[in-house]
Amino acid sequence: MIDGDENGLRARFAALGREESVGAPDFRRMLAAARTRPRSGRRHVRFVAAAALVLVTLVAILTMRHGHRTPVDLAGVRVRVPTDFLLQVPGAELLRTVPRLGVMRFDRRTL
Asked: What does the DSSP assignment read for 17-83?
């Protein structure tokens, strides 16, 4: 049973290949035509590619030379994110100051 199905499938694929090859041009003729065709178009493409490369390089050099930089004022930027509450710890004011050695100061609120 499997052999019969396999033979039928082979026959169908062979018929499909014959159908497709009817409309396809001959490979040897296409290869010969491509070899005899003049290659003037490639020279034009190479010239355009080289000119584009030179232009891009020139623009990059001129841009880097002038150094157009826009200043950013970070002092005016305030970003509030939902996890800011995790950074609020008890006694955070102690973390913002520099301790002075030799001076003892107790706050009765922190004891």
From this structure: HHHHHHHSPPHHHHHHHHHHS--HHHHHHHHHHHHHHHHHHHHHHHHHHHT------GGG-----TT
